[in-house]
Model the fold of this input.
Amino acid sequence: MERTVVLITGCSSGIGRHLALRLASDPSRSFKVYATLRDLRAQGPLWEEARARGCPPDSLETLQLDVRDSDSVAAARARVTEGRVDVLVCNAGRGLLGPLEAHAAGAVSSVLDVNVAGTVRTLQAFLPDMKRRRSGRVVVTGSMGGLMGLPFNAVYCASKFALEGLCESLAVLLPPFGIHVSLIECGPVRTAFQDKLEGGPGGALDCTDAQTRHLFSLYQRHCEQVFREAAQDPEEVTEVFLTALRAPRPALRYFSTERFLPLARLRLEDPSGCSYVAAMQRAVFADEPAETGAGGMGGPELGAPPAAPQ
Done:
């Protein structure tokens, strides 16, 4: 039986590593996984867990791939011995948390380069062959932060909003070539993602005013509560990837949790945005009086919104 060749970016930790191991250890033995990492010196934990799971020796390979470098992406593609990639998983990403004015220019550029331009570079490298073969799947790690703006996540949300437009555009274009694009919309996930934020949590807070620092402290408290109540195990999230990967006619969007869908729907139900803004302000900054504006228009009481999503 010919195996499905899967290449995944960003496998040093988090969802990427868990997904690579889940597919490589699948009882069906129907996957050949290329787990790619920016720095191969970080591959030790991946192989340790692969041995612990009993992954067949030919089910998993690691490749160096830095999505910031087109030559690195092309080199990784050339090292796929099967000469094809059936499923491309664009998972590499970086976070950025804190007041906008606290972010260094380099941190902003890095997040946009990895999350947006890096995904474009990867797609540019692998889509032409999929088009020639008239077959392929693209699965992208999305975020609820790509469907709704979150305070103190402005640049991160901007990058994930960009991925929504990129993937939706391709989802319209590519079916005649036999290629399907899916986004896995994740909420908070228990990974090391928060430990790898560009510039650390909050950035240069001394560059901001006292009120903004206070609001940021409220947001951090909110994040802690949401993570306690709603953060998912990465193994649970990888099953959503597997659902998209195996679907005969995959959807554009799959949600790892339905907890935050009411807020996403609210953005569509009130196109002015007033209801969503009011609901988010209430949820995150409940201790602070907010200027209502727009005639004080608010929305229904909703559950806690996502906090610093994957």
Q: What stands out?
A: The two ends are 35 Å apart (CA to CA). The longest helix spans residues 105-133. Confidence is low (pLDDT under 50) at residues 289-303.
